[in-house]
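Just wondering, does anyone understand what follows?

——
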Amino acid sequence: MRWLITGAAGMLGRELVRRLAENEEDVAALGHDHLDVTRPWAVRAALAEHRPGIVVNCAAYTAVDDAETDEAAAALLNAEAPRLLAEACAPHGARLVHLSTDYVFPGDARTPYAEDHPTAPRSAYGRTKRDGEQAVLKALPTATVLRTAWLYGRTGRSFVRTMIEREARGGAIDVVADQRGQPTWTGDLADRIMAIGRLPGVHGVLHATNAGSATWYDLAQEVFRLLDADPGRVRPATGAAYRRPAPRPAYSVLGHDRWRGTGLAPLRDWRSALREAFPGLLAPEHPPTRRGAA
């Protein structure tokens, strides 16, 4: 089976391509320079050329704040492009795995959101991602939509990498303590995508986040511990202290009940994943000036 990965130059795309290659899978890795997923003819041509058995759409507009003033650009990449991919997959009999986000929910819950909980996004980014989900499942009912959140990995920018760099500068740091979600390692997510690719019956919406929950403050403290640094240097702050154009969810923890029907386990606890990921986070693109023990 051939895999086709769109957005292959991004954080998740790179990790998925790397792991597929390690498993000697046949993979066509297409970043934006190789495939503009917003152009119908380009999408159709890519499917016709590569004839994949499964397409994984990692391409997305992720500038959450910018989307508030340029929703049309976000919609083109987050809603229109997934629809084009789904429509192009259908005549070839290709499966589609599409990545979505916790931002499709309002973020005002107190218990984890179930996969079938009504969506009600509060930001332009969330609206465009919700529209993308709906477009994909309408055009290709056999598609799989994976909602994920708080991603970090060995490449690209992430909160975890920022905390590693901030710790190396010394001093204290203020971190938001009233927003709760699920830190998710791209390595675990990539493994689960690969497992789904080998199970043809998995379709519909699944929540693909590491288990448990944390605030940004909790996550920063854990990063400091793994660096053998004093977690007391991380000080709690409120989200109101960091005003941004797009509202951030106060609670966006996702439930994982639908995994039971797939034969696959949900992703493990976020702390366990972070510990395993940590050595790889210290080495790549932007290493800290001082390394601690993992």
In short: The longest strand covers residues 95-101. The chain has a mean pLDDT of 94. The chain is about 35% helix and 15% strand.
